[in-house]
Amino acid sequence: MTALKDILTRRIAQTGPLSLADYMAECLLHPEHGYYTTRDPLGASGDFTTAPEISQMFGELLGLCLAQSWLSQGAPAPFTLAEIGPGRGTLMADILRATKGVPGLHDAMQVRLVEASPTLRAAQKERLAGYEVTWCDHVAELQDAPLWLIANEFFDALPIRQFTRKGQGWAETQVGLKDGALTLGLSAPTPLAELAPRLEDTTDGDVVETCPSATPIVTEIAQRISKHGGAAIFVDYGDWRSLGDTFQALEAHEMVDPLARPGQADLTAHVDFEALAQAAQPSGVVSSQMVPQGLLLARLGISERAQALAAKLSGEALESHARAFDRLTSPTEMGTLFKALALAPSPDKMPPGFDAG
Ligand code: SAH
Fold it and tell me: Is the CB of 328 under 6 A from ligand 1?
């Protein structure tokens, strides 16, 4: 039994079942035994791989997208260039390399990384050596300044609550105990005001998920963009409006039982982009239409960039480059499963590649 499994089993025995959100929060970020707290989970030798780890093209194109957006809003200085959940720092490193030639941008930027994991902060520090970078625990700590922000595969790592429709009420998925072992169960159904709109587009037995901690994060970002200018780009796997059970665990690139080894597997759920857009709305920013990753990268010029890089490659390196292009863009890989959403101060200020919603 893992140490965390022992802790959670005792806690449930004493105080009753945990919501999925509480279970996920403990598994991912427990100060001593949490998944992100204790390891670098990325890459071939880890549990999962992300777009920036697959190819430098992802960060280069998104970096230039952010830079163009900064230029078209009058190149304000100083401004905050922020990333939430920066993993190994690869995306930010690619963004910074790609934007080096943009006149004035590096002089005007103040780089902020919002990262919960001490292990990954150390990896980011190493990766971004040579740049002046400040870390924070939460987006609320970002300065009051124009903000250009990016998040890739961040929101999928936030704890979710999961509900199954029963008549006019909702039963919440909980982690409880059966014969001393962790097991998933459902609470007694109750009506829930926040899910009232979903009574219209669901039927008995349908599952919907919410991500309570995403809302305050998006609100903080949207308020800064509305007040000071800027833009945010969120890329993740998911869709418009949550429907169905998407809670999953990955270990060594394989799907595993999410209850089997708490703290040892990556736990995620699909991102509900409609919920992110709705969380931004009250602050007065506009959200873009949700765009599939493959289409966004095509609009930002990935074919041209891929060809330029290919011209310098041969043999195995060329094959691996072609394979990376495919992984990022193909509908059978990340191209349509992954989506992007942008926030901007007004419809005419949408970053390149995004249509106003
Ligand atoms: N964006 C990176 C890594 C994605 S993994 C990439 O594309 O490769 C998720 C990242 O979010 C990790 O850096 C993890 O430590 C961080 N993270 C997860 N939950 C967090 C939280 N609540 N606050 C801040 N960072 C968090």
Answer: no
Q: Whose CA is nearest to atom 3 of ligand 1?
A: 87
Which residue among 30, 58, 62, 117 has the greatest number of ligand 1 atoms within 8 angstroms of its CB, and so is best to mutate? 117
42 lines ligand 1 (CB under 6 A): yes
> Tell me, what's the pLDDT at 1?
64
Nearest CA to ligand 1 atom 10: 85
Q: Once rounded to an integer, what is the mean pLDDT over residues 37-48?
A: 86
Residue with CA at minimum distance from ligand 1 atom 17: 85
Look at residue 98 and tell me whether its pLDDT is greater than 70: yes
Distance (angstroms) between ligand 1 centre and the Cα of 86 equals 6
Ligand 1 atom at minimal distance to the Cα of residue 41: 5
Question: Which of the given ranges, 43-47, 98-102, 116-120, has the highest pLDDT on average?
Answer: 98-102
Domain residue ranges in the chain: 36-158+213-349
Cα 59 to Cα 37: distance, rounded to the nearest angstrom: 25
Q: In terms of Cα–Cα distance, which of 272, 249, 337 is closest to 20?
A: 249
Top-tier CATH class for 36-158+213-349: alpha beta
**Ligand 1 atom at shortest distance from the alpha carbon of 85:** 11
Mean pLDDT of the chain: 97
Question: pTM of the prediction?
Answer: 0.97
Nearest C-alpha to atom 16 of ligand 1 is from which residue? Answer: 85
